[in-house]
User: Fold these one by one.
Assistant:
Number 1:
Amino acid sequence: MTEPVPVIRKLEHALADDDFAWSLLLVGEDQTDKLATLTGDLRGPVSTTGDGKQITSGFSYWGIGPTIAWANATNDPFYLVMKAGAESFLRHWRKVRPHVENGGFHLVSLGVGTGVKDRTILSDMRRHNRDMYYIPVDMSSEMLRMGTLEPVRGARFPVSQVLPVQLDFSIADNMDELAQMLARLVGKDPILFTLTGNTLANFESDEELLSTLTRVLRPQDRLLLEVASTTQLDQASADAAADEYHQTRAFAEFVTSALRYNTDLKINNDRVKFIGEVEDEDALLVKILWQNDTDAEIRMELPDHTEVVLPIGDTIRLYTTRKYSTTRLKRLTEACQLTPVEAIQSQFRYTRRPNPFGLELLLLAPEAAGESAHSLADDIWAT
Ligand SMILES: C[S@@+](CC[C@H](N)C(=O)[O-])C[C@H]1O[C@@H](n2cnc3c(N)ncnc32)[C@H](O)[C@@H]1O
């Protein structure tokens, strides 16, 4: 009797001959654990400042409702920063690209979103490495399906070289497992990891996230980091940063969608507050929170059918974001032993008055990569 052929080897042929829109997904974590985490976070202590109950990064995009809401927000023509961001990304990427064109890089995209940026990166990288793999990693399976369509259909990246992975990359054990799997998949070939769209800024501790990610970089790997930036650090700028998110209805729909889909809370957009502050004297922090500003307590049912009482003034943090100063970026990258190989910054020019905000794209190497990057680092951080 002949041995059965492993299903995974037969799958590629089985799917290639079918017109139906199959997509392959590697699920790294038990999704019931994720729901339990979200439920626990929504049961947090009472706080009037958005520091008790919360929806942490990843959960704001988790599930089909938030995924559609995110896609709508990114396409909203009134979300000017998003539009400016998409345009500046193209210009910035062209300058970074020469550093990752040679050597046979693969791409691991941490937080795929709508996949528009991955489409650009992949079509450029594949010209130099036809055999490259594309591994988008995201907590949301729906986001993975939507985000990978863009490069696969839009840029004709071969589906047989795509491996979407559903995983929470903020958990150190998950990153260790991912790194081991990747090493078995690509051997010693270099990997370009990307964390774009200011995703770093969504985490309560951005330093902890960055160090969790960079711990798995090998000397030959690189990290492409895109963050929102500011040249001013005062309360007026923090208020302006908060205002930026307040302007679009589609963003308000997105930011409340996780709460809408996971609880029975009736959400009135007037109860959503956008609060800006200067954080650690080197970044602007924006907290977006729902607040019970009525004169009575409100009851909210959680996914496990338990009830939480929201007293007058209590808040639920819906989203965290930041704008980084050069000082903060230098502090973060040094703490994580990362050296900049290239850094490109541009200011937003869509307002009539001078605007301190912009976007920055950094290509980073682990310090173990060698000396050549060090002299560049001095120039980059001196600006
Ligand atoms: C701000 S969007 C950025 C999307 C895209 N990279 C871009 O530049 O437009 C953040 C993405 O990261 C994913 N994400 C956020 N936190 C995550 C986590 N802890 N683990 C895995 N994915 C996460 C979200 O689902 C979403 O797709």
Note: The pocket of S-adenosylmethionine is lined by residues 57-58, 61, 111-113, 117, 138-140, 143, 168-170, 196-197, 199 (CB under 6 Å).
Number 2:
Amino acid sequence: MGEIVKEPLALLMGLQELDRQLNQYHEEEKMLPERLQIVQQPLEQAKEMLAKLKSALDQVTKERKEKEQALQSAEEKITKLKGRLTELKTNKEYQTHLHEIESANVEKGKIEEELLVAMDRADAVKKEAAAQEKVVAEEEKKFRAEKEGLENALKSKSESMKGLEQERNALSEKVGKNLLQEYKRLAATKRGLAVVALKGNICSGCHFSLPPQLVAEVRKGEKILACTYCHRILFPAPT
Ligand SMILES: [Zn+2]
């Protein structure tokens, strides 16, 4: 008599363990996109930094071109002023004109200095951007490897899960229909924990102590019995 009851209980415990492993796998599967996003973060940050440097490079390049144009205009202005020197009649006109050339030269010198600064800045940002390109390439490589690792790990697990699924189906067929239904109902409402150990007189599912008569009956192992409080199926923990 005892054997008849102990067997379905053992089957249920086996089923629960298989379900636990399968659920764990499905959880991992669900977590994959999130984990990929996490391992992708360093790459995204490196790309963001590169984009900032590129826009800074555009800005300093534009500044440099503006200074180059300003320098060209200043040189043209000086050439023009110098060309008119011969047309001048009075000494006063001549003196005024010389002053104009002088201040144009001062202006030109200022622009030349600014151009040098702009060129230096453009060079520096260009170097920084080039270095950042390398960082992005490195991060890209790292991310690809990590992604492949995560996906491969899951893929090889998926193979072993197929075996577990088959085992579970075989076990399910052995468990009586009513008991299987009860197990499924409990597993769904008790977060996968349908069968729990009775430890001493304590249900390890809800941690309440159970009436002595129930404890004694569970120990005998002749019937499928449930906890008075949480209704989980009890099995006697080996003492
Ligand atoms: Zn309980």
Note: Strands lie at 195-199, 202-203, 233-236.
Number 3:
Amino acid sequence: MTNESSGPDKGMFDAAVFANKHIKGKFYRLGLEFYGDGAAAFAKARPGQFAELDLAGIPLPPTDAIAEDLRDASERKILLRRPFSFCDVSSRKDKIRVEILYCALGPATLRMTSLSPGKSVSVIGPLGNGFQSPADKKTALLVSGGMGAGPLIHLAKTLAADYPKMGIIAFAGAKSKTELPFERPTDEISQQLGFALHEFARVGVESQLATDDGSAGYEGFVTDCFTKWLGRSSLAVKDTIIYSCGPEVMLARMAKIAEDKKIDCQISMERMMACGFGLCQSCAVKCKVNGSSETIYKLCCKDGPVFDSREVAFEL
Ligand SMILES: Cc1cc2nc3c(=O)[nH]c(=O)nc-3n(C[C@H](O)[C@H](O)[C@H](O)COP(=O)(O)OP(=O)(O)OC[C@H]3O[C@@H](n4cnc5c(N)ncnc54)[C@H](O)[C@@H]3O)c2cc1C
Ligand code: FES
């Protein structure tokens, strides 16, 4: 799994936890620090790539800290590593820091909440193909649903640094205000900066917020918020690219919007993953064959998780 000539591109490494912050509700942000070969590999990590974490040996939090609806599930044995994308990658002297925005919803992610600074985690990565760079585009529109925000926060930072003249706008949606995986109260930030979300504002990226129940921002699906915004804008479609990550039903909708408007669109898909690098075939994504009605299966972990939206044959 390594490339000797230029340092490893990926591999299995031990990472040290430097932070594990509870954001609110079931949302957390884990900070991992890599040294040596691990630092060399993760320095090359691109937005949209992911890593497989071994969380089996981590103890569960105390029972009274586990939400009642997760207590039965929390006892389930963890046989496999779990995949997570990155919301930030940064360098600090000879170390690389990788941050993961995560939601505690089952046995592995509940264990993840117990990781405290100084603990070590076995990580395989960086894996998969991330978002492609938009060299010839003037505007990038980032659309996330729920936990899909993580890789798009990372992408916003990278695009803002690599393409300082590019217009970048983020659209983030969730079921309700409490389901938004962001740190600061949204109204405080919007008052101070005129931008909805701190996570994007800190890299100079404007953002719009939508919640299905209207408890924060636009009332309705983020895809509707996005469509209305697009309708009011006068963007040249050939200069524009959409990047999206979130639940599959939302990605299918984004793919349709992009197809109707003829805008290039890259989507980050999710599948249950076992190996994470193309061996077990557990993460198949049905894809269209160009110029034919046939379909083939590609692997989310190896060919993706980011796909061109025209490629995926959604079955919803
Ligand atoms: C490429 C990739 C990147 C990811 N990035 C992140 C991230 O940045 N932050 C984050 O919180 N989560 C992310 N996930 C999802 C994460 O891997 C799962 O939440 C985790 O595996 C759940 O493990 P668990 O044992 O706690 O819960 P489990 O008991 O395994 O799952 C709990 C519930 O979530 C569903 N679920 C679990 N994994 C997935 C999945 N991959 N797709 C759809 N439904 C699933 C299960 O069906 C079940 O209902 C990512 C997944 C993939 C494939
Ligand atoms: S997770 Fe094993 S092939 Fe994709």
Note: The radius of gyration is 19 Å.
